[in-house]
Design goal:
Largest sheet: 2 strands, antiparallel
Order of helices and strands: HHEEHHHHHHHHHHHHHH
Strand content: under 5%
Number of strands: 2
Shape: elongated
Helix content: 55-70%
Number of domains: 2
Structural class: mainly alpha
Length: about 300
C-alpha cells in the first residue's frame, strides 16, 4: 500500500469544487466610502482613499506595509501614508512635497537597500522627511491598532482590481507597472473622460479597480470576473481532502454526487482498491438517475 509523504499532492493533485469554497470577506460599506472618496478618519487624522498612482509608487520599492504587513516596520506605514498624502504634489501649492520626485531620488540613492531604522547615518533625506511627517500625525503613532486600520484601508482599495483574472494582464512583473497604468488610462479614461492626472492621483483606486473589472465583463461576457475565494478556507479544504485521501475516504461531494465528481488522483494512488469501488458507486448512481428520469417522463405523460 503506497504511503503518503508531504508534497505528494503536487504529483497526485486533489480538487475541491469551486462552488464549495467561501468567497473572501470584503467590507462592502468600506468599499462604497472609498469609491465615493470619503477619507478614513483615525482620531482627527483624515487619510484619503489611495489612488492608482499611490499603489504604483509603493510598488517601486516593494513597500512591506502593503504586501508583507507582518514584516513591516512603523516607518513602512509612515512611508505609505506620506505617499498617499502628498502624491504628485499640487499644481499651484508649490510648497507641498512631491512624493513622486522624492521617492524617485530615494530609490536612485539606494535608500531601500541601505536604510537601517536603528542607524540614522544610513537615512536619506526622504527618510528624515517621512519621520518628521509621522511625528506630526494627529494620533498616537505607537498604537498598533491604528496601523491595522490603515493597512485595511489600503487593502480595501485593491478589492476591485483583484476581481480581474490574471490572464487579463500583460504578464508584467509589476501589478501597477507602466503597462497597467497605460491600459487603465486608455480604457477607463475613455469611458469617464478622466485626464491621466485625475485617474492616477485623484480617482480612488477602489473605483478604478471595479470599473476595470466591469469593462472586462462588458467586453468579454465569458470572462471570469468574480470576488476571489478565501485563502484560509482554500487551505483548510485542501488539507481536509488530503486527510481523507490518507484514510481512504471519499469526499462529501463525491458521496452525494458520484457521477458529477471524479476520484482525486491522490485518492486513487494511496488507495488502489478505491477506484473500482467508486466506479461501482458511479454506475449505481447513474442507474438510479436513469430510473428517476423514466419515472418522471411517465408521470408527465399521465401513465
Amino acid at each position: 500500500m503506497p504511503q503518503y509523504t508531504p508534497g505528494l499532492e503536487k504529483v497526485y493533485p486533489v480538487t475541491v469544487p469551486a462552488d464549495l469554497l467561501r468567497t473572501k470577506y470584503y467590507d462592502g460599506d468600506g468599499e462604497i466610502f472609498s469609491m465615493l472618496g470619503a477619507p478614513l478618519i483615525v482620531e482627527e487624522q483624515h487619510i484619503p482613499a489611495p489612488s492608482l498612482g499611490v499603489w504604483s509608487l509603493l510598488e517601486t520599492f516593494n513597500c512591506p506595509f502593503v504586501n508583507k504587513f507582518n514584516e513591516a516596520l512603523p516607518m513602512d506605514a509612515w512611508r505609505a501614508m506620506y505617499i498617499n498624502e502628498y502624491r504628485a504634489g499640487h499644481p499651484w501649492k508649490w510648497w507641498r512635497p512631491n512624493a513622486v520626485e522624492e521617492v524617485r531620488q530615494w530609490v536612485t540613492d539606494e535608500g531601500p537597500e541601505t536604510f537601517d531604522v536603528n542607524d540614522k547615518k544610513t537615512w536619506k533625506p526622504w527618510d528624515h522627511k517621512v519621520y518628521r511627517y509621522a511625528t506630526k500625525l494627529k494620533f498616537d503613532i505607537n498604537y498598533v491598532g491604528h496601523y491595522e486600520d490603515i493597512r485595511l484601508w489600503f487593502e480595501l482599495s485593491f478589492n476591485g482590481y483583484e476581481m480581474i483574472p490574471k490572464s487579463a494582464g500583460g504578464g508584467s512583473a509589476y501589478w501597477f507597472g507602466a503597462e497597467t497604468l497605460a491600459s487603465m488610462m486608455a480604457a477607463i479614461g475613455a469611458c469617464t473622460n478622466c485626464t491621466p492626472h485625475q485617474l492616477l492621483w485623484e480617482t480612488p483606486m477602489c473605483s478604478v479597480g471595479h470599473t476595470a473589472a466591469q469593462l472586462i465583463r462588458i467586453n468579454n461576457p465569458k470572462a471570469s470576473i468574480a470576488r476571489p475565494k478565501c485563502p484560509d478556507h482554500i487551505k483548510q479544504m485542501f488539507e481536509e481532502c488530503i486527510e481523507r485521501a490518507k484514510l481512504g475516504q471519499l469526499h462529501p461531494w463525491q458521496k452525494a454526487e458520484p457521477t458529477q465528481y471524479p476520484l482525486d488522483q491522490l485518492q486513487a494512488y494511496l488507495n488502489p482498491d478505491l477506484p473500482a469501488h467508486y466506479r461501482k458507486m458511479q454506475k449505481e448512481a447513474a442507474d438510479r438517475k436513469q430510473e428517476e428520469t423514466k419515472a418522471n417522463r411517465k408521470r408527465e405523460r399521465g401513465l
